[in-house]
């Protein structure tokens, strides 16, 4: 694979720049995407807006994971995207960085569960499940989900899994297939 | 005139994360307001433009309002208290983050993190290289969309083709940049001569620890409203 130094463990300068450039592109996409979010978020439907749009914010991590295919790539990829977002655009401030880290961990756990051997469907499926559960636990505290009624919570969990499943799972898988077709990755 | 003494960016980052993490678990409107006010005071002390501050606060208003309102509609237990906790929490996070992003340039922050918290130079200079491309990346994003429109297509965030274009650009640019930096003498994993130096007096570490512990004490032992 061209993106990676032969030594899969260490981070090369090229890997870092590669992920950072992708992170900045993501920063721009987030900015566009947040208009969709804002429309809903100013109403009591805010929790729906959170969970419905969350997938896009999550996908930088698994994308970095499948492109670099090494332990830690998912967390670092997501953390970089969050750092870029915070430094350049965000209206969430400090919570951007914390959420980015949490999201990265969630996805990373999925790939780790396959022993970092499966970067295909199984790895992505586990990674989306990991991200859904971990981010939900985080929002339980950070966004006060513990105080919502049960009906809303159940709906939110399902919406969240669909959003993350599509953007951070299916879409990332399609991207992977496209990239493989171009021969950029062996 | 003596230059204003600012908190070192590395210490500021630890304060932000140390308190930010605790905010997620605390249940206090008063503490949220205190964090917000202290952050704002620091921002004003650092002479951040009031106009910028005003717009930063304004942009987050819909989010805070949405949070506040959603607890009144869907909440359980003490709805009013919850509404105010999570409404004001948006602002404590916002201003806590702004206390870094609006007072420290990215370059200074990264160099300070490498100097005091041992962030690897590969990351510091790799990130800096990419940040310097920011305007170009923004232009490139438009370029990708324009060239798609030439072919009668529009790219949306849910289409894989958009990301393929992004990945190709990132691959090319990162390869070129890394090569250019290496040929200019950047070596990975070796000692660097640092010309950058920022002051980090010992009292700032004390301040950092005091603030984080004080918040812990107030949020989880004192537990104000």
TrEMBL record, chain A:
Transmembrane domains' residue ranges: 16-36, 80-102, 122-141, 153-175
Keyword line: Membrane, Transmembrane, Transmembrane helix
Pfam families xrefs: ABC_cobalt
Domain of life, per lineage: Bacteria
Alphabetical list of InterPro entries matching this protein: ABC_thiamin-permease_prd
The protein's name: Uncharacterized protein
Biological source species: Liquorilactobacillus oeni DSM 19972
UniProtKB/TrEMBL annotation, chain B:
A single GO cellular-component term on record: plasma membrane
Source species of the chain: Liquorilactobacillus oeni DSM 19972
Topological type in the membrane: Multi-pass membrane protein
Subcellular localization: Membrane
Name of protein: ABC transporter permease
Domain of life: Bacteria
InterPro entries: ABC/ECF_trnsptr_transmembrane
Phylogenetic lineage: Bacteria, Bacillati, Bacillota, Bacilli, Lactobacillales
Keywords noted in UniProt: Membrane, Transmembrane, Transmembrane helix
Record field: transmembrane: 7-23, 29-45, 52-71, 115-134, 155-173, 202-222
Keyword presence, Hydrolase: no
This protein's record includes keyword Disulfide bond: no
């Amino acid at each position: 694979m061209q993106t990676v130094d032969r030594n899969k463990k260490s981070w090369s300068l090229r890997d870092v720049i590669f992920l950072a450039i992708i992170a900045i592109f993501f920063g721009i996409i987030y900015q566009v995407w947040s208009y969709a979010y804002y429309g809903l978020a100013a109403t009591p439907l805010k929790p729906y807006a959170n969970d419905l749009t969350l997938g896009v914010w999550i996908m930088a991590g698994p994308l970095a994971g499948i492109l670099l295919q090494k332990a830690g790539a998912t967390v670092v990829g997501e953390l970089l995207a969050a750092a870029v977002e915070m430094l350049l655009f965000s209206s969430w401030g400090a919570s951007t960085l914390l959420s980015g880290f949490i999201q990265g961990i969630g996805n990373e756990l999925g790939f780790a569960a396959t022993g970092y051997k499966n970067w295909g469907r199984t790895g992505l499926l586990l990674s989306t499940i990991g991200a859904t559960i971990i981010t939900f636990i985080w929002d339980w505290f950070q966004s006060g989900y513990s105080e919502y009624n049960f009906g809303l919570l159940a709906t939110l969990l399902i919406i969240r899994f669909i959003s993350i499943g599509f953007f951070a799972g299916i879409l990332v898988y399609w991207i992977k297939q496209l990239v493989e077709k171009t021969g950029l990755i062996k | 005139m003596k230059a204003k003494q600012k908190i070192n960016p590395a210490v500021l980052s630890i304060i932000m994360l140390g308190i930010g993490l605790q905010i997620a678990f605390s249940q206090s409107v008063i503490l949220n307001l205190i964090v917000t006010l202290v952050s704002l005071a620091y921002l004003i002390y650092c002479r951040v433009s009031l106009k910028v501050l005003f717009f930063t606060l304004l942009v987050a208003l819909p989010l805070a309002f949405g949070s506040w309102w959603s607890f009144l509609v869907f909440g359980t237990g003490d709805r009013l208290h919850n509404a105010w906790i999570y409404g004001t929490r948006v602002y404590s996070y916002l201003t806590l983050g702004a206390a870094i992003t609006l007072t420290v340039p990215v370059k200074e922050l990264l160099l300070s993190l490498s100097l005091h918290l041992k962030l690897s130079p590969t990351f510091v200079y790799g990130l800096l290289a990419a940040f310097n491309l920011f305007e170009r990346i923004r232009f490139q994003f438009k370029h990708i969309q324009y060239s798609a429109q030439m072919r009668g297509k529009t790219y949306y965030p849910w289409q894989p083709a958009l990301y393929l274009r992004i990945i190709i650009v990132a691959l090319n640019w990162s390869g070129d940049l890394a090569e250019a930096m290496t040929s200019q003498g950047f070596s990975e994993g070796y000692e660097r001569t640092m010309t950058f130096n920022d002051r980090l007096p010992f009292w700032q570490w004390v301040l950092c620890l005091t603030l984080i512990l004080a918040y812990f004490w107030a949020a989880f032992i004192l537990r104000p409203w």
